[in-house]
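Before the break, one more example. Copy the sequence into your notebook; we will annotate it together after we see the structure.
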Amino acid sequence: MSDFESDPYNGFSVEYLSPSNGETAHPNISSRVQKLEAGFHSKVHRHTRSKVLHVFKGEGYTVIDSVRYDWEEGVLLAIPNWAWHEHVSTSADDTYLFTVRDLPRMEKLGLEREEPYQENDGHQKGKKCLILNCKRYKDEFQLNYMVNQVYVWLTFYIGYI
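Here is what the structure looks like once it is written out:
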């Protein structure tokens, strides 16, 4: 992946496609792997698709609507639709994220939109981020939020399978 230019919002990414037809393996959900190089700090953007990230390797944090969520290997993180977000790799080595998202469904419905953050050179600022530990679920609100996002996301799409 490193032979190509890094995307300022997602680092390097490879979409998983069916070899038989070149489309996503599932008509409603797509998956991809992202590589964030050591020290990578993405620019902020938002989109109508929602996604769930699994940290396969590495550590860092994601800021979602000015709230910081630390993550490390094995953590799941839900990013709701239309939420401003950015990823930061704090690893000495490359970080790999496995991402599942509802992009095919949003495209088929004609609802997919994406918007870059224009202020502060593309990074969230101002408020001090609330730091929550995703792995140990010390904050009950965060766990409930993540579970509810995944539940709503899956419930909506299972109905279309």
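Residues 12-158 form a domain with the Jelly Rolls fold (CATH 2.60.120.10). The radius of gyration is 16 Å. Try to locate both features in your own notes.
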